[in-house]
Amino acid sequence: MRARAPGKLVLSGAYAVLDGAPALVTAVDRFVLADASRAAERVTPEVRAALGDAPAPWFDASALREGDEKLGLGSSAAILVASLAARELARGSRTDGELAEAVLRPALAAHALAQGGGSGVDVAAAAYGGTLSYRITPHEPTVTRVTLPRAVVVETWWSGRPAATSDFVGRVRALRERDPEDYATLMDAQSSAALRAERAVSTGDAVGFVSALHAQRAALAALGRVAGVPIVTPEAERLASRAAPAAVLPAGAGGGDVLLHVGFEPSAPEFRELAASLGHRLLALVLGARGVHAE
To answer: What's the whole-model pTM score?
Structure first.
């Protein structure tokens, strides 16, 4: 009756995934633990949306936090998936695949209800684990397992400050309503770069993948400027200028909580010195972690 579900990093396709472009997401080796034999001390909005008045499992999400602050690794989705999985396990044993299939659809519905929409990419990562290509399609998302090019080195840098991503998404949606032509132009650039990233991953093209992430940072920065939100923060821009040939971009919706350094070797000392001076810390994460499973 104890289940674990991983956090996630969105590597590619932020915002554009909502318009049907592919996102690339990877599960990370920091897990939420849920226990259906214990009463919840706190019930998240997502779990309440899934269970209504039914008893919710106890959970521990401390691995996805630093003190009182979220690390920006998809804790709400991981809590939801682990909680639903713990209840499934109370009814009988399941393989990892059976457990993922049992919880995915109700978790997607509850997460969207509680958050007023969203892509569900973090829910898929928590359920399936590994590294995924994820697309929103008319009936249900299309999820495909992928492997990052072997030459790529991904580092995750945390700023120590959480980002209000729901506000960012709301401002981007407001731009779509206010100026659909500008929105379409900006989103076309991000969607095109997301498609390039997916193609590069499918062919093992490390250079093409990093190039596509460079293009996404530029596209996201332009989108944020017009929408009036710092998707790519000034700190991220400074770090990107020190990272070449590696790409530096926000993981997911942006705002500066988690930055990715994606290149062909670990970041240089000069980059690390600047990152430290800006209050960023390298997180020790293993990508492609196991999906939801019984402990």
So the answer is: 0.94
